[in-house]
Amino acid sequence: MSGILSGEDQETPAIRVLLVDDHEMVRIGLAAVLDTEDGIEVVGEAGNGKEGIRLALAYKPDVVLMDLVMEELDGVETTRQIMEQLPDTRVIVLTSYLDDSKLYPVIEAGAFSYLLKTSRAGEIADAIRAASRGQSVLESQVAAKMMNRFRQPKPAAQKAPHEELTEREMDVLKLVAQGLSNQDIADRLFISIKTVKFHVTNVLNKLGVEDRTQAAIYAHKHDLELE
C-alpha cells in the first residue's frame, strides 16, 4: 500500500504562537497549557516588548499572546510595531487590565482579540483557533465597555489638542518647552531616552505640530504652567 497521503488526509499545520509577557511564571504556565492543545505550537517566548518584536520577525508566528504592561516597551507599542511589519499576524491581548487607557489604544494599534488573565485555559486556546480563522474574540467585560463607549453621546465641544495628552506626555511637553534635551528630560523624569522619544512623538502627533519648536510655542501660547 502506498505511503502517500491524499490532500484530505494530510495534517493541518499547527497554529504557531509567540508568548510575550514579562512574568516568567505566566509564560511557563501558558506554554505548558498550550502544549497540551491539539493544533497549537508555542514557537517562542519573550520577556519584554523589544524581545517580542525581535522574535516575531524571526519566527513570523500566526498568533501572538501579548501582555500590556511591560518594561522597555509596553504591549500597545509592541502590538503597533508588530502589526506594521507583520500585518497577517494576529495579536491577542492577554492582560489583567481593563481600564480605558489600555483597552482602546491597543485595539487601535491592531490587536485582534482581548482577553483577561482570568480566562480559562480552554478559552485562550479557543481564542487562538478563532484568530487563526480570522475571528475576533472579546472578553465579555471588554465587549460591554466598547458597546457602552459607542452608545455614549458625542461631546458638544471638541477638546483642545493638549487635553488629549496623558499626564506623562504633558510632563514631557513642559520640559521640551523649557528647552531641555532628550537626555535632560530622561534624567529629570527617570526614564530612558527611548521612552522620551516615544512620548515626544506622541506629543507632536496629538498637538498636530511638526517639531519640538512648534510644540514649545504651543505650550507657551496655551499657558501650560511651564514653571
Automatic annotation (TrEMBL):
MF-aspect GO terms: DNA binding
InterPro entries: CheY-like_superfamily (IPR011006), NreC/VraR/RcsB-like_REC (IPR058245), Sig_transdc_resp-reg_C-effctor (IPR016032), Sig_transdc_resp-reg_receiver (IPR001789), Tscrpt_reg_LuxR_C (IPR000792), WalR-like (IPR039420)
The organism's place on the tree of life at top rank: Bacteria
Keyword annotations: DNA-binding, Phosphoprotein, Transcription, Transcription regulation
Record domain HTH luxR-type: where: 158-223
Source species: Paenibacillus albicereus
Positions of post-translational 4-aspartylphosphate modification: D67
CDD domains according to UniProt: LuxR_C_like, REC_NarL-like
Protein name (Swiss-Prot/TrEMBL): Response regulator transcription factor
BP GO terms, sorted: phosphorelay signal transduction system; regulation of DNA-templated transcription
